[in-house]
Each structure stands twice: as C-alpha cells, then as structure tokens.
C-alpha cells in the first residue's frame, strides 16, 4: 500500500485529479471507438478495410475462389497456437497502424518476411494433402522439402489477389457489403407492386 | 513533493493528451478520406436507362459491354456478324409464308445493336406515325432498359397496348445495365414482369432463386419462348406471356397453345393455324448437361476477365467460342481447336437432320396448298393441318434457340425426331387425300432456290416493303431520336463530388 499512498494525491487535490484523469481516459475511449478497435479482435475481413488502403486486397479476394473458404486471417496470421496468433496480429496491426498514421503507406503493398512465412504455412495447412504424397515420403528423403519449401505463389501468382495490387488498381465497387445484406429480393419494389394486382387468388 | 516533479508530470500529461488528440484527428481525417476513395462518380437513380451514366461508375464493365458492337466473329451457325438467314436458307421463307419472318430474318448481332436492328428489320415495317405499322408496342419489351422505366411510368398493361410506333420516342437505349442490375447494390434483379409472372404460373417464387441461378434467370427474361396474349385480363393489350403453365418442355407448351386454340398466324399456302417458336434458349439449356452441373449462362457467355488488378465479369456478351480460353478451358483441359470441333460436330449433325425435316415441312405446305386448290374440305384438312402445326412448331423450337444444338443436343435431337414423324404423318394423310381428290403423281414443287424466288413465290412485294422502310427511316427515326434526346437532357445526373 506504500506505493499507492505515494502516487495518490493529497485528499484536497483528489477530485481535481480525478476529473483530469477522467478527461484523458474519455479521450482515449473515444479514440478507440472512432478507430473501431474492437473489430481488430475479430476475424471479419471487413475489419481489414477499416482503412481504405486495403480495399484493393479486399476486392481482389472477394473476386477469387478463396472468398468462400478463407478469410484474411485464415491466411495472413499464424494458426499454430492462439497466443502466437494474437501476438502476430498485434505486432502486424500496430505496424500497419503506425505506417498508416504517418502516411507512409506504399503505392503497392508487398508482404514482408514474417507475413510471407505465415501465408506459406497457411497454404500448407489447408493444401498439404494436395501437394505431398505420403507414400513418396518414405522413399524420397527430400520429398517434403521439395514440395513445401518453395513458396506456393512462385507459380500460383494470381492466387488469390491477382498480380497488380496498387492502391489504384481497382475502381469503385459496391462489393464490400455481401449482396444478401443489402437486398432481400430479386424483384424490385416497383415491379412487385405493379404485378401484385394480377396475382391469381388461390 | 518537489515543484520540479510536478512540472514534469504536467509536461507528460500535455504530451499524452496532445498525441492522443493528434491520433484522433488523424483517424477522423483518414476516415473522411475513405469516404471518397473508391467512391462512385454519380448516383444512379432507380430507373436510369442510360447505359453511359452507369458507365461513369463502372468503366470496365461498361467498356466491355460496348464491345458487343464488334461484329467480326463468325462461327459455324451464328457469331456476332450480320447474317441473312433467309439468304442462307430460302426454305424458311416458305415455312413462314404469311408471317413477318418471311420478309426479313437476320442472325442476331450484339446487345448494343438491339434498338438499331429493330429499326432496320422489315418485320417492323414502315410506320408513318403513331397507330400505324404491323407490330404492337410489346415488340419493344426486350430491346431496352427504357422499358422498365416506361412500364413504371405508364403501367404494364398500358405498355403492352397500342402499336410499336406509338412509343418509339421513349425507347432509345439498347439492352444494358438496368435490364439486369439493381442500381443501388448492383446485384442482379428481374426487370421484366413476364418472367416473374411465368414463375408464378408454375407455382414458384423467383425470389427464391440463388445468386448462381440469377446468373441464368436475368437472361431468361428474354431468351425464352413467348407469345402475345390478346385475351389478357383488362383487354386491348398484347400481353407478353411465357407459355410455361404446364411446364417448359416442347410438348408442354404445345399442349398449352392447343388448349387455348392459340395461333401466331395462318400459313399463306397451307392455311395452317401456325405457332412460331421464338427463342427457347433458356428452356433448352435447362435440359442440357451444363445446366445439370450448375453452370449458368454468364459462366460461359460472360466469363471473368482481369484488367489491372481487377477481376470482373466480361460484359461483352458473346459466343464462348470467341473466347475459349476464358470460357470452356476454365473447366475443360483440352486444346482449343478440339473443343470448338466438339461443338461444331454436335451442331453439324443436328443441322443435317433439321434440314431433312425442313424439306418435309416445305413439301407438306405446298401439298396442302394443292389439296385446298382441288377442293378439299375443312373437315378433311383438319387433322393434316394439326400435324403440320405440331411438326413445324417442334422444328422451329429446335432451330430458333440458336445455341440449342450445343446446349442440349440430345433433347434437340429428340424434338427433331418427333417432328419428323409428325411431318411424315401429315404427308401420308395428304397423299391419301390428294388421291381421293383425283390427283395423280407428285405435286409440282416450286423453284425456291434463292431468297428472291422464294419471296416471290409466297407473294411478297419486297420493293414496296423496302420503300416503306426507307421512308420510315428518313422521316420517323430522326424525330424519335430528337424527342428522346430532349427528354433525357431534362433528366439530371446527380454527381458525387468531393466539394
């Protein structure tokens, strides 16, 4: 308790300090809310377009066959254990946030080494059975390293984002929102109304 | 407590609050910035029929759509070029004697020509003003995104009432964006009542469709068999209807038409109450193997394409054979030439059986004409005409869906065989009747080896028709275009600007 007594202000000053601390905390909370920070704990791909610089990556992914099976985090953060996952997310996220805040983002975003390693491991995580052969492992010593050491995108260069990924590579798109979230029916309202009167009565 | 320490604490707080405020300001700024990055140029309103306005927001899709103007691709049966089908096969003129198609019938060009080509075809004749000309306003239904706009303005029933020339000034934009897309979400949507109503007639709700099914159904708004119902409730209209109530097979629709005694026209030579199959592309496609595997129209006719970093749907809707790499070869790992040969082989074989069937039908019409000439009674002719009606309907069904012999070769072959049997029936009955009427030997067959000869034989005055068309194109179309331009110039486009 000695420590607490040391930092606590004298009784008569405590209300003033409380008000000032409250102001700072409120400012912090508001900043967190504006920055939508809780979304960063989730796996929702739309978190990645909180900032618009990732729109190109988001749209190219949304036009790829991976959109139905893998989200951003499925490929871009490690999945071997949950602590590593969040540690990586935090490290990567803070790095992105810093560069973005400093307005230092490059025109074309390219993965760094740590990111490449994570992605490569995740390719293997899902596709291992497709690229390795259990029988061959027993008689070809180098089978696993032959098959798994080279990065997948050395050949599959368009998977899944395509090859050109500058900030201006994609145009205006409404895709950021999944279709069914925006629209329930395939018949527009005017046509529904105009044909309603003629519906056969059962 | 030292004074110095307090000052330090003060300075630290200043720094923390300052940095926090700076960060907050930065976040808010960049959020505002993202409101403008990747934003549209214009707001597209609900009934925007001008394709170029949509093109402001979606330049890639729009530019590829504009390439449907390309007329350089020719395949074995179709392609995107202007091909005179009557010139290539004058038999058609006799088969359609007394009907508009014997005047003029070209293989279709791309969507961008939808309005131009309906201006030019002799089938729409040479109206001299509102209320004139051979065709009803319903003929516009599949030509333009102006159609849903106008239907919303004046009413569906009203749209289907009157002559083709009555609303010429309202419809100028060729088939485009608003025909298939929701302007807010760009999701696919149905813009024509006929498909929705046909689904209801079959007891289905089109809103239950999946996205993949919609990639076919938006095409099925037009590429289907249809007729103009003159007895629709309300009266006075020629209500566009798909005859799907009993089902979408050729026999189902035949029974539907028979049950209501419907005929498109009466044949000029045989006096048969005929049915004209339009283009049952959707119905036949659905019976084929690609449909069974869940492939949609857009998968092959609008394959994906990459430009810059963006992958998008190629809106140059065309024959997949013009772009085998992006269409067929996405699934089929064969050589391009082998794949094309596979298609042509099916088409060639079916075409040969269709040609034989055509010969039977042309002769049946001529022989029926002879029987009437020799004084046959309606009673005697009735079963024969019924056979001719059914046989030609089925023949037409098999040829009019342009891609049918590839989309569903087995079903098309089946249809051709049943039609051949019925046509033979008709000719056997005719032979019996002719001999009863005292006719000996073969009925003389006219020379219909060229388009000109065949059109003369069925009694068409082509010079008159062409003259009328010329006058129409010179006097009426410029007026329509001018009126449309004026109307559209009064319609504002709301710009989305950074201000």
Q: Which pair of protein chains has the largest interface, and what are the residue counts?
A: A-B, 48 and 57 residues
Shape verdict of chain B: elongated
Shape call of chain A: extended
Rg of chain A, nearest Å:
25 Å
Instruction: Give the class-level CATH name of the domain at 51-72 and 100-263 and 296-330 and 464-498 in chain B.
Output: Mainly Alpha
> What ranges of chain B have pLDDT less than 50 throughout 5 or more consecutive residues?
none
Tally of helical runs of chain B: 22
Spatial strand sequence of the major β-sheet of chain B? 1-10
Low-confidence stretches of chain A: none
CATH architectural label of the domain at 51-72 and 100-263 and 296-330 and 464-498 in chain B: Orthogonal Bundle
Number of strands of chain B: 10
Structural class of chain A: mainly alpha
Q: Kindly provide the radius of gyration of chain B, computed on alpha-carbon positions and rounded to a whole number of angstroms.
A: 29 Å
- What is the distance, rounded to the nearest whole angstrom, between the alpha carbons of the first and last residues of chain B? 55 Å
Distance between the termini of chain A: 80 Å
Order of helices and strands of chain A: HHHHHHHHHH
Could you estimate the helical fraction of the residues of chain A in percent? 40-55%
Q: pLDDT average of chain B, as an integer?
A: 93
The profile of the biggest β sheet of chain B is:
2 strands, antiparallel
Tell me the total number of β-strands of chain A: 0
Organism (chain B): Algivirga pacifica
Binding site for heme c 4 (chain B): 297, 300-301, 407
Binding site for substrate (chain B): 226, 279
Family (chain B): Belongs to the cytochrome c-552 family.
What's the short version?
By secondary structure, chain A is mainly α.
Would you kindly provide a written description of the structure presented here, covering whatever features stand out?
The complex is a heterodimer of chains A (202) and B (499). Chain A is mostly helical and 202 residues long. Helix content of chain A is 51%, strand content 0%. Chain A has 10 helices and no strands. The longest helix of chain A is centred in the first third of the chain and has 21 residues, at 14-34. Chain A starts with a helix and ends in a 6-residue tail after the last helix. Helices cover 50% and strands 5% of the residues of chain B. The radius of gyration of chain B is 29 Å and the shape is elongated. Chain B is mainly α. The two termini of chain B are 55 Å apart. Chain B has helices spanning 3-36, 51-57, 59-66, 85-88, 91-95, 114-120, 146-154, 156-159, 177-180, 193-201, 211-217, 250-259, 281-285, 289-292, 297-301, 336-373, 378-400, 404-407, 409-436, 451-457, 462-475, 477-489; strands spanning 42-43, 83-84, 106-107, 227-229, 239-241, 265-266, 273-274, 304-307, 310-313, 494-495. In chain B, helix 2 crosses helix 3, helix 16 (336-373) runs antiparallel to helix 17 (378-400) and helix 17 (378-400) runs antiparallel to helix 19 (409-436). Chain B is built from 22 helices and 10 strands. At the A-B interface, helix 2, helix 3 and helix 10 of A face helix 1, helix 7, helix 10, helix 11 and strand 9 of B.
